[in-house]
Amino acid sequence: MAAKKPTVKKKQTEVIFDPKKIAPALVKTAHVKGMEGYKKLYNQSVKNPLAFWGKVGKEQLTWFKPFKQVLKSNFAKAENQWYVGGKTNLCYNALDRHLTTARKNKAAIIWEPDNPATPSRTFTYQQLHFEVCRMANVLQANGVKKGDRVTIYMPMVPELAMATLACARIGAVHSIIFGGFSADSIKDRIIDAGSDFVITTDTGYRGGKVIPIKAKVDEALEKMSGHVRKVLVVRHTGDHVNVVAGRDIWWHEEAEKVSGVNKAAEIDSEDPLFLLYTSGSTGKPKGVLHTTGGYGVYASFTHKIVFDIQENDTYWCTADLGWVTGHSYILYGPLINGATSLMFEGIPTFPDVSRFWKVIEKHQVSIFYTAPTAIRALMRFGDEPVKKHDLSSLRLLGSVGEPINPEAWLWYHRTVGRGKCPIVDTWWQTETGGILISPLPGATPTKPGSATLPFFGVQPLLVDSDGKPLKGATEGNLCIQFPWPSIMRGVYGDKERFYNTYFSTFKGYYFTGDGCRRDKDGYYWITGRVDDVMNVSGHRLGTAEVESALVLHQDVAEAAVVGFPHDIKGQGIYAYVILKEGRIPSDDLRKELIAQVAKEISPIAKPDVIHFTPGLPKTRSGKIMRRILRKIAAGEIDTLGDTSTLADPAVVEILVKDRQK
Ligand code: 6R9
């Protein structure tokens, strides 16, 4: 299998898009107007963060009991508490408090199904409140209590949003697993979270295909007898599924037994809200823990300011609720702000490549937030599918998940945004809970490919490999030097791991794992991960995870995995595989290995290239030289650098020879 040709990084000619010129109407009504507006507030926010966040905290959330202290922190030790002593409930903030306002009958969620022939479903704030209260009652009637971890494995259906909010309502900690993950991944996450209650659906639709959902949960549970007490099943497609007596219960049956009245629990600001598993550079995915007050304030405030939410907007974020982008910017941010959030079950290319544009036209979407990989995939089909649709409702575009190349940025701006919509390229992470670096649409002049400037209260810092802070225009490791309200509070069940992973590399700072350039105007340009985390179509995967899946195969002796530049996915997966003595490389074996990874982790983790090799470049102490493997995978064989410290330099020649074939 040949590797895709690597993308050549061209030196960008810097074009600047000033919102005052391209979107004067937006600037006039924006929450933050002009660079003067941004600079003034930014300066206040870093000069006196406690006053700034205290005020925002009071404005963003309704508190049952006011907080006593804005921030209690020992940042260098990875200890952070926000809005200390405050009591609130994010489900109450997302629903109940809107019911006494004009928003009561406003659409909270518009659901657009996979198949365009199926009708959309709309839930007003009142209707969603009713369903969530029933779901909360069902959970409680089935023994779910505050602090319990509830695992949710569902496709993008409205009941997924309801289940999530119902957990928040009663103080249960939700752990959503993306519907593409395998039974083994589900099992690992249920065990790690110590979860005994699962919410799922019968099956799901994706791109016109039926995908097993409950069957995957069943398979996971079979492998871990006794952990899970109950499985609440939502009937979505109506397909037949296996029902385990005494364990499995149907949502439509349970819902009939309960009322639509449920009092939102009083939740402490620092009580856990959710766990979300994400890949790191070592070992199995870790459960990133977020708590209530700080997360709610930051997710909703960034949503309001970065997307400049106004009362009449129809806002569409195309992510899945199984990723952090879905948590913060489909669910919590928009609903806390009383916005209309569109939830999409499908994919951009079904039934054809104009699906996104059809949905925008149908619902007159005004704010559209998607990932560079989707933009690049759709850009290949030219302007025609876009131009056939009325996209005049769009006033703002967003990008997230990976660096956006200037070519894709310009196409997004000119073709999708008709040259009239500012683009917010939002940089953040599962760990940060919300956007940390991004333009503000009514203020920041943008440069294609740059996430531009820090959000209020965010203090980025670039350091060299020794941790020395770098000044001015430079390139280095991206760190953050002051806490923000939605910083993760810990790795679930492993207190040390939070500090060790994020705060021990560069003492005193939160290290993001990303490399970054800062230009003469102070703009930030994320260059990608500098650790062993890959970003494939905006999905985070650890090289170690994929390697572990490969070596489970009986024929494999050793594997080393690296990312390489890929035109559509951003990064592809390149796997070097050493077979056991006497095993013969073949295309069938390649297929088996790829299937093995899909089964162990998920189809999103399938290697693009399997490169069989007799050996790997290692230092004399036995450490794999990944730098060299990355260069070979990228086809950059002229710049392999120093190979003299290798135990066996001849290995490199063999690898290069095979790569060139
Ligand atoms: C929100 C999300 C985090 C990693 C992050 C970085 C990359 C995200 C980006 C971006 C460049 C952007 N990333 N947004 N890189 N520009 N606008 O994606 O969270 O799945 O945890 O991934 O994604 O490398 O470190 P998560």
Automatic annotation (TrEMBL):
<dbReference type="GO" id="GO:0003987">
    <property type="term" value="F:acetate-CoA ligase activity"/>
</dbReference>
<keyword id="KW-0067">ATP-binding</keyword>
<dbReference type="GO" id="GO:0005524">
    <property type="term" value="F:ATP binding"/>
</dbReference>
<dbReference type="GO" id="GO:0046872">
    <property type="term" value="F:metal ion binding"/>
</dbReference>
<feature type="domain" description="Acetyl-coenzyme A synthetase N-terminal">
    <location>
        <begin position="38"/>
        <end position="94"/>
    </location>
</feature>
<feature type="binding site">
    <location>
        <begin position="401"/>
        <end position="403"/>
    </location>
    <ligand>
        <name>ATP</name>
    </ligand>
</feature>
<feature type="binding site">
    <location>
        <position position="556"/>
    </location>
    <ligand>
        <name>Mg(2+)</name>
    </ligand>
</feature>
<dbReference type="InterPro" id="IPR025110">
    <property type="entry name" value="AMP-bd_C"/>
</dbReference>
<keyword id="KW-0460">Magnesium</keyword>
<keyword id="KW-0007">Acetylation</keyword>
<dbReference type="GO" id="GO:0016208">
    <property type="term" value="F:AMP binding"/>
</dbReference>
<feature type="binding site">
    <location>
        <position position="529"/>
    </location>
    <ligand>
        <name>ATP</name>
    </ligand>
</feature>
<feature type="domain" description="AMP-binding enzyme C-terminal">
    <location>
        <begin position="545"/>
        <end position="623"/>
    </location>
</feature>
<feature type="binding site">
    <location>
        <position position="514"/>
    </location>
    <ligand>
        <name>ATP</name>
    </ligand>
</feature>
<feature type="binding site">
    <location>
        <begin position="425"/>
        <end position="430"/>
    </location>
    <ligand>
        <name>ATP</name>
    </ligand>
</feature>
<feature type="domain" description="AMP-dependent synthetase/ligase">
    <location>
        <begin position="103"/>
        <end position="492"/>
    </location>
</feature>
<dbReference type="GO" id="GO:0019427">
    <property type="term" value="P:acetyl-CoA biosynthetic process from acetate"/>
</dbReference>
<dbReference type="InterPro" id="IPR000873">
    <property type="entry name" value="AMP-dep_synth/lig_dom"/>
</dbReference>
<comment type="function">
    <text>Catalyzes the conversion of acetate into acetyl-CoA (AcCoA), an essential intermediate at the junction of anabolic and catabolic pathways. AcsA undergoes a two-step reaction. In the first half reaction, AcsA combines acetate with ATP to form acetyl-adenylate (AcAMP) intermediate. In the second half reaction, it can then transfer the acetyl group from AcAMP to the sulfhydryl group of CoA, forming the product AcCoA.</text>
</comment>
<comment type="similarity">
    <text>Belongs to the ATP-dependent AMP-binding enzyme family.</text>
</comment>
<keyword id="KW-0547">Nucleotide-binding</keyword>
<dbReference type="InterPro" id="IPR042099">
    <property type="entry name" value="ANL_N_sf"/>
</dbReference>
<feature type="modified residue" description="N6-acetyllysine">
    <location>
        <position position="623"/>
    </location>
</feature>
<feature type="binding site">
    <location>
        <position position="551"/>
    </location>
    <ligand>
        <name>Mg(2+)</name>
    </ligand>
</feature>
<protein>
    <recommendedName>
        <fullName>Acetyl-coenzyme A synthetase</fullName>
        <ecNumber>6.2.1.1</ecNumber>
    </recommendedName>
</protein>
<feature type="binding site">
    <location>
        <begin position="206"/>
        <end position="209"/>
    </location>
    <ligand>
        <name>CoA</name>
    </ligand>
</feature>
<dbReference type="GO" id="GO:0005829">
    <property type="term" value="C:cytosol"/>
</dbReference>
<dbReference type="Pfam" id="PF16177">
    <property type="entry name" value="ACAS_N"/>
</dbReference>
<feature type="binding site">
    <location>
        <position position="540"/>
    </location>
    <ligand>
        <name>ATP</name>
    </ligand>
</feature>
<feature type="binding site">
    <location>
        <position position="553"/>
    </location>
    <ligand>
        <name>Mg(2+)</name>
    </ligand>
</feature>
<keyword id="KW-0436">Ligase</keyword>
<dbReference type="InterPro" id="IPR032387">
    <property type="entry name" value="ACAS_N"/>
</dbReference>
<feature type="binding site">
    <location>
        <position position="325"/>
    </location>
    <ligand>
        <name>CoA</name>
    </ligand>
</feature>
<dbReference type="Pfam" id="PF13193">
    <property type="entry name" value="AMP-binding_C"/>
</dbReference>
<keyword id="KW-0479">Metal-binding</keyword>
<dbReference type="Pfam" id="PF00501">
    <property type="entry name" value="AMP-binding"/>
</dbReference>
<dbReference type="InterPro" id="IPR011904">
    <property type="entry name" value="Ac_CoA_lig"/>
</dbReference>
<dbReference type="InterPro" id="IPR045851">
    <property type="entry name" value="AMP-bd_C_sf"/>
</dbReference>
<dbReference type="InterPro" id="IPR020845">
    <property type="entry name" value="AMP-binding_CS"/>
</dbReference>
<feature type="binding site">
    <location>
        <position position="537"/>
    </location>
    <ligand>
        <name>CoA</name>
    </ligand>
</feature>
